[in-house]
Amino acid sequence: MMKVSLARLGSAVRCQSLQQWWLTMTATTVAETDWRLVRARDGLGLVTFLAIVVGWICNWFGSSGFVMGWRKWALWCNRLGLVGGETNLAAWLLGIQTIKIQPYHLPPLGPHDVKVRIKALGICGSDVHHFKTMRCANFIVKKPMVLGHECAGIIEEVGSQVKSLQVGDRVALEPGISCQRCSLCRDGRYNLCREMKFSGSPPNNGSLANKVVHPANLCFKLPDNVSLEEGAMCEPLSVGIHACRRAEIGPDTNVLIIGAGPIGLVTLLAARAFGAPRIVIVDVDDCRLSMAKELGADEIVQVSTNIKDVGEEVVKIQNAMGSRIDVSFDCVGFNKTMSTALSATGVGGKVCLIGLARTELTVPLTSAAVREIDVVGIFRYRNTWPLCIELLSTGKIDVKPLITHRFQFSQKGIEDAFQTSAGGGNAIKVMFNL
Ligand SMILES: [Zn+2]
Ligand SMILES: [Zn+2]
């Protein structure tokens, strides 16, 4: 009797493609996606799947001729590319508050690229802005776009010239692809490159997908003791690291942080790792403040949203610090928060503006200028992944408590996740497990 094992049938229609087929079928059914988008190959995939099941049952009962017929069908479907292609699904932003899981055709793998199977992805404030308003600052979403950029995954394929990475490596992805030729890139300030292609920022597709193609030099190998979720957290952590570098945080700088959202909290962790002796953090939300306290803030101060309270609150904040405030980080970017930062910072200190809630601010700049307060800004980050990974691996920074919610990559999962993240409150980092 001709023995056809399940494993052999499985290899006829690769397991991976079956899994993909199943994902497509379930995800799109739940999604109530436009059925025109579910391609013919998915229907044939169903028949092929049944072929395997029927073949397996027949094999069990020993009817080998029947098995061969079904097996041939599966084999030919695979050969003709009717199943087993690169059916890759991604979360597409189609309109305001409208995200659908739909197929995403990857660009070809260049010689210096790698293909990464995404395993963990965190939702960023900018993703939520895109979701709610189809824009973030000056970046406007004009056509459907795949969301997401805080991610880590496993290398599935490497380009012909890639020497530094191998299939199976776990990597964290830096999302910004700069030109590497302009003067800013050559000076090492590549985050300011005018040609920057940043994942998940229009018009560039992001990474909330089964797989992405990414330059190998922007994929950083994770040591065994750093999880893929922690790898995905390198992106928000990078913002805190870059801000601390720009503000020259060290063992002599007392730090005030305004805003205890995800960026405020990563700035807190980074400032502590850079040696800041005393850190005070302020916010309007007591839930977020207690999280900041748990993460190691020395003092927390609850503030209002009323600009008239600035004077009174600055005194409260300075008392909470107990000594001079050397550096203030505004992780929000409202008139009130920046006014507080400029007023609370001691003579000769620095204010670093991270949050960009408003494009223009009205602030007491003159009084800050005569106290020689330096105002610095940051735009994303540069050269931060190796340090992030080292700080995570050595345990100097623990980002795990920031991950407050986890969702699966399904239509319902993405809808719930974005609503949760947009709701703020106790949601700090909302993470997808793919
Ligand atoms: Zn981000
Ligand atoms: Zn450049």
From TrEMBL:
Its cofactor is Zn(2+). SUPFAM superfamilies: GroES-like, NAD(P)-binding Rossmann-fold domains. The keyword Zinc applies. Residues 95-432 form the Enoyl reductase (ER) domain. The chain crosses the membrane at residues 43-62. Keywords: Membrane, Metal-binding, Oxidoreductase, Transmembrane, Transmembrane helix, Zinc. It comes from the Eukaryota. Belongs to the zinc-containing alcohol dehydrogenase family. This is Enoyl reductase (ER) domain-containing protein. It comes from Hibiscus sabdariffa.
